[in-house]
Amino acid sequence: MHRSPDEQEEEVKHKASEEDELRAESGLQIDAAKFSLGGSKKTKSETERSFISHRRKLQELDLWLPDLKKSIREFFSVSSKVKCIFLQIDDLYHLKRADQAFVVDYIHRLCKDVPLFFKIATMRHATTMFVDREGQPIGAQERHDYQPINIDYTFSHFARAANP
Fold it and tell me: Which of 84, 107, 141, 142 has the most CB atoms around it within 10 Å of its CB?
């Protein structure tokens, strides 16, 4: 799955054909004269169906989510020492910007209702944490799902940068 493309599109065509032939002949022979009457009818019908099949890695990962959460719950029910796990995700901005919100969304859903907690460190202006696709919220919304912490020391706050 790691090496397969994120999205795969395949065009599928199915062609079915049917051919009917009707042939009739009639003849009459009187002495040396021969009279013949014949005819044929050929009917051909053809049906072509075409559709495009989309396959996304995200769809397959979504199918894994219930089993992953079940395994996590089983781990915590068996463990006597581990009470929770903290995931630290650093440099999220290195992912393709179009994928960032989907990764955050998956981690958010994975951690929901189990003792998993996550922290994401990234550059605010190079990261997309949330997108709205056709009314479907994807990712994590600022102030609803996470609280941003600004640890950026730049020339805009030169006094803080000079004396941390």
Answer: 107
In the prediction, which pLDDT does 5 show?
72
| Predicted local distance difference test score (pLDDT) of residue 36 | 64
For residue 49 the two structure tokens come to 């169906």
Residues of the chain with pLDDT under 50: none
- pLDDT given at position 48: 73
Nearest to 85 by CA among 102, 68, 101, 61: 68
Q: Is 139 left (phi over 0), alpha (psi -120 to 50) or beta?
A: left
Region of 31 on the Ramachandran plot (φ > 0 left; ψ -120 to 50 alpha; else beta): left
Neighbour count for residue 129 (Cβ, 10 Å): 22
C-beta separation of 106 from 136 below 8 A:
no
| Residue 162 confidence (pLDDT) | 64
Pairing between strand 85-90 and 116-121? parallel
Contact at 8 Å (CB) between 139 and 128? yes
Q: Rounded to an integer, what distance in angstroms lies between the CA atom of residue 87 and that of residue 52?
A: 38
